[in-house]
Fold:
Amino acid sequence: MTAKRIFMGMWVMLIFGMAATSLSLRLIHAQESTEATEVDPFEQVFAGLVEDGILTQKQAETVMERLGPVIREVVEDQVRRAVAEDEQRERIEQGQLNNLFELLGLEKDEFFGLLKDGETIASLGEDRGVTVEQIAEVMVPPIQRMLTVAVNEGDLEPEVARARLQEAKADIEEKVRGEE
Structure:
């Protein structure tokens, strides 16, 4: 009996592992496509896994019955984290742009209009006596704030944060020069 339970546990973990790789994306898609209906997005996800041949209908029903609540919690947590990361990335990018607009003495619409007309960030800076290094310097603080929070919360070692900050600055300089 114990061997059978171990085998079943391994089977469930294998199925869970295979399904978990596509669940997050499928759930997001299912939620977007079923916002106006009463269809459970998880039912749609498992129907898709059955359709793709990853699971049989019986396996899908068994997994939903036994692991549905756990899977739902894990996926919902992943979605929440992804949304939070996207929001944080947007705040960083907006902070960088605001700093850049101020440094170049341009309004948002004027800045993007000039880029649309073929100017580069480097040429906009050059026209205003601003170096690529100065542009990179004003774009780094939002990233530095994010890294500082990660260090303070124990999510990142200080040495790693310093290295990432230097990499970010080098990446920004490359992008400003158009070397990406």
Summary: Residues 10-15, 34-38 have pLDDT under 50 and may be disordered.
